Here is the input.
Amino acid sequence: MKQTEISIGVSILVVMLLRLFITFPYASLLITMLTLALSMLYFVFSFGLLNRIRLRHLFNKESYKGISLIRIIGTIGTGFVMSLLSISILFKYQLWPYGSILLLIGLMSILPIIVVTVFKFISHKNRFHSTLLMRLSIISMVGLLFFITKSETLLEMRFRNFPDYIEAEKKAMKDPENLELQRISNEERLKMESH
Here is the structure.
């Protein structure tokens, strides 16, 4: 499962970076599907993934020898938070509503887990905590990078060839309750997509 996690994670980052500079069909759909796959991996299989249990041994009782119940519960909670953070990164990247708020919730939720993991790593120095700390650091850094990046900056990078759409969308973002601005933004988006 570790290779699956790495493959999906790297694919998401590569497609996101490519999409910032190159427009290609179905990029948003591909990013969404890959992020949902990573999120589900964390949400459903975190107890096995984070404890380095192979998929074929996931339901074998012998695989859990030496792993405490508290550690299993902790990895389930950590997987839930990592799932939330990956979804919130997707929301921010796609410029969907409440992306920044979700990202803040995800980052605030992962902070206590990082603190506990650092404390455990310092006191125990085992491979489990070092690997978990690396995972948490990577996803937290990506989340923090997206959190400090303004939505307007992402909009300008993704749609730099369509200044009319950018301006219409910026106005709509500043006043989301204004239906006229939403209508103008949608019209500009349709013009953009017809090119």
